[in-house]
Amino acid sequence: MKASAELDAADPLAHLRQQFVLSAGKVYLDGNSLGPLNRKVSAHLARVTNEQWAEDLISGWNTHNWIDLPLTVGNQLAPILGARSGEVLCCDNLSINLFKCLAAALELNAPRRKILTEAHHFPTDNYIAQGLSQLLGHERCELQTALIENLDQTDLRDVAVISLSHVNFKTGELRDMQRITQQAHAAGCLIIWDLAHSAGAVDIGLGQHQVDMAVGCTYKFLNAGPGAPGFLFVAERHQHANVALQGWMGHADGFAFEEHYRPASGITRFLTGTQSVLAMAAVTAALGIFESVTLSDVRKKSLALTDHFLDHLATCNWTRNLEVLTPTEHAMRGSQVSLAMEHGYPVSQALIDRGVIVDFREPNIVRFGFSALYNQFSEAERAAQILSDILKNEWFLDPRYSQRNTVT
Amino acid sequence: MKASAELDAADPLAHLRQQFVLSAGKVYLDGNSLGPLNRKVSAHLARVTNEQWAEDLISGWNTHNWIDLPLTVGNQLAPILGARSGEVLCCDNLSINLFKCLAAALELNAPRRKILTEAHHFPTDNYIAQGLSQLLGHERCELQTALIENLDQTDLRDVAVISLSHVNFKTGELRDMQRITQQAHAAGCLIIWDLAHSAGAVDIGLGQHQVDMAVGCTYKFLNAGPGAPGFLFVAERHQHANVALQGWMGHADGFAFEEHYRPASGITRFLTGTQSVLAMAAVTAALGIFESVTLSDVRKKSLALTDHFLDHLATCNWTRNLEVLTPTEHAMRGSQVSLAMEHGYPVSQALIDRGVIVDFREPNIVRFGFSALYNQFSEAERAAQILSDILKNEWFLDPRYSQRNTVT
Fold first, then answer.
1. Are B286 and B362 found together in one domain?
2. Residue A49: what pLDDT?
3. Does residue B224 belong to any structural domain of this protein?
4. Which of A255, B27, B46, B316 is the most buried (most CB within 10 A)?
5. Which residues contact B267 (CB under 8 A, 6 or more apart)?
């Protein structure tokens, strides 16, 4: 195992860290939940607020092209996702975008009428599918749940669309997008990937792998701020689909105020109502950093960081026997390491109390999220050491650490 | 007619203007489209970005109650709308919120299956209804269009829900919420009011008038910034409804990550996915000004401003014969004056070029929006005078003024 200092010194992305506001005494390993503030975001947001909005007011929609932000930000996202310009929109939130994609996919692939979701999908994705099924009625939309590992033993004959996570939020397992997409297509299904935990951390080839649709959010590895807007990808070949949520921003000529909906051609028909310019301003500035890096460099460092963390866990008596839920195989690992442990919640709180910011997921999982844009190898080592100390000294037994927060 | 200076001097709301950033040389009469920046919004947004997000990162969801913002901001909106705490959410955009309300109302009022919309509704509202009807199929959801004036001659027997605007966006006509809501209820229909052009400008009694549901946006008279989030009101008696767009934020215990959707009790089940904290921060700060005023004072000044503008139009040869689309009767007037004129578009551009910021709506309407929070009586006079000069001197014939912008 190389020394952390040596790895940090050789890190070609090390200079990016200075763009972010990060507390000196803390190790921030929760960028898989909420990315930190990039100073350029702060500056751009102030500019949009105090100059564009304050001074130009209504004319800002034209002079600053606010009206096009969902598409222009989508075009910034496209290369990060391996998509083409005109295939991605930044808008609404992931849940809403998934509803639009699921409804469109069902119609595109009629008379098939099933949505196949995975049992371990991020819950909101399944809730949205459940809501759509309830709205349409079971004769038009039935849900089926499967383990993605068993897809080849699953009857897919009536499945219109498969909805699944690229990276499992609990375990950090990365799915084989190419193989699973091919499997879906071979069975006549469309596929919608949830990229929440991979966008900005993994090199994703949506176009290369012939993915049909995808959704995601920008508040994790894309660092656009708490609750930042979602995005959706619809491959060009599917952009003639009807959109269930059809607002004026998806109209071919919204400002003609026509009585009847006439969908825009291309991806913009997937827009609904007016989007928050302030929220979009944060996204556009946050994505700027990706113009100076390649996703393959990001991915390489991400894997090196999680390797380094796992290596350190393996060297110590107190951590070497912990159950690592995240696959050790690189091709199956996202940008986090998930540990299952008996006292998961109080351990996560003890870590946070000692400056290692992680999070907890039911029932017993502590997640250590690593971002190649700002995390250091020395931080991976330090997190492992502090975890070891907590377990060795049973600091997690402190009753303070058992008090639950609303958001965990 | 009283002198503008006298009216301004006697204006009890005059001191509020200083909170807003307004260019000295301009008369901003487009607050019915985009409200100006309140300095407190700018300060709060910087605080949320550079302190809450930057320093507290993921813990901000708990320590700053970001997670509750849709409800807490909704509770700020409630008194502005004449609703009770727990009946309003700030979230998503108006179009999405209308979809949720329409779908819920259809189910609540089954087996009725029609949505009645008005021909002159804001287009996005009708597009959303058209999309829902297309999604559900005509046998489950049929659209019917009527003129609201003719509601008593309209067959409402199969109408589940009536969707209409409180203030017509083109004419500025304010509808009689009490009478129309009673008419709807007498015929067994539910009613959803679009408050986009009345919230923050008119004293609205949602509770008093037994309104069922309402939607709106916060970027007009509520001054929360370009594309700021929407809101929805659902009367407590209807909050058991199923919500078609059911994301994790509407779950009874979202952070338990349960496999099946279990709706929260109360209004929060109308939430979808994660909301932008930055966008919400702007709304919460923008609404602060309403804690220091009563809506009846706002309404009184709003009517006095539009009266003053109409009085000045009537005094001058060049404007006295213009077609005023906005009702002169106070009870039927929103917070704008709409003039129909042959050269509407170039006149609107000539006004903007001379510092009177108005907007244009097809086919020939120039809208003068007045906000009691910052507009002055002297501005109403000045706008009338400049309009008169433009018409008198035919300045609108300048070819520059015929070039169309994307957003008008």
1. no
2. 98
3. yes
4. B27
5. B71, B74, B86, B87, B88, B89, B234, B239
Which of A260, A291, A322 is a domain's end point? A291
Per-residue confidence at A143, pLDDT binned at 50, 70, 90? very high
The arithmetic mean of pLDDT across residues A232-238, rounded, is: 98
Instruction: Assess whether A183 and A254 both reside in one domain.
Output: yes
Provide the number of structural domains found in chain B. Answer: 2
pLDDT at B406 over 80: no
Q: Is residue A229 reached through a cis peptide bond, with omega within 30 degrees of 0 on the bond before it?
A: no
Mean pLDDT confidence for A19-38 = 96
Same domain? A306 vs A265:
no
pTM, 2 dp = 0.98
Distance from CA of B12 to the nearest CA of A (A): 25
Give the list of residues 6+ apart from residue B112 with CB closer than 8 angstroms, or none: B106, B158, B159, B160, B188, B189
Q: At A270, which CATH number? A: 3.40.640.10
In a domain, B36, yes or no: no
Q: Is B251–A123 a contact, with Cβ atoms under 8 angstroms apart?
A: yes
Local confidence band at A58 (pLDDT 50, 70, 90 cut-offs):
very high
A367 is catalytic: yes
- What is the per-residue pLDDT across B115-136, written as a single tens digit (0 to 9) for each? 999 988 899 999 999 999 999 9
pLDDT at A404 over 90: no
ipTM: 0.97
Domain that holds residue B119: 45-291
DSSP H helices, B11-122, are 39-47, 60-63, 69-81, 94-108
Residue A174 token pair:
């990365």
Q: Are A284 and A302 within one domain?
A: no
Same-domain check for residues B237 and B299: no
Annotate B139-196 with DSSP letters as a single string: TT-EEEEE-GGGGGGS--TTEEEEEEESB-TTT-BBP-HHHHHHHHHHTT-EEEEE-T
Nearest CB neighbour to A128, from listed B66, B219, B246:
B246
Do A314 and A192 lie in a common domain? Answer: no
pLDDT at B75: 98
Domain boundary, last residue among A229, A257, A291 = A291
Residues 245-264 of B with CB under 8 A from A: 245-251, 254-261
Chain B residue at shortest CA distance from A404: B62
Mean pLDDT, residues A143-157: 94
CB contact under 8 Å between A282 and B277, yes or no, is no
Closest chain B residue by Cα to residue A33: B58
Mean pLDDT of A352-360: 97
Question: Does residue B408 lie within any of the structural domains?
Answer: no
The residue ranking higher by pLDDT, B25 or B334, is: B334
- The letter for the amino acid at B267 is I
Give the pair of three-digit tokens for residue B115.
Answer: 């949505």
Are both B98 and B199 inside the same structural domain?
Answer: yes
**Is B277 in the same domain as B267?**
yes
Token pair 């997921």 in the structure block, residue: A361
* pLDDT for res A407: 78
Catalytic member of A11, A92, A125, A194: A194
Q: Which residues of A touch B230 (CB under 8 A)?
A: 273
Q: Do B67 and A42 touch (CB under 8 A)?
A: no
Residue at A80 is within a domain: yes
Q: A360: domain CATH number?
A: 3.90.1150.10
Residue among B113, B108, B132, B80 at smallest CA distance from B239: B108
For B256-311, the pLDDT digits (tens) are: 889 999 999 999 999 999 999 999 999 999 999 999 999 999 999 999 999 999 99
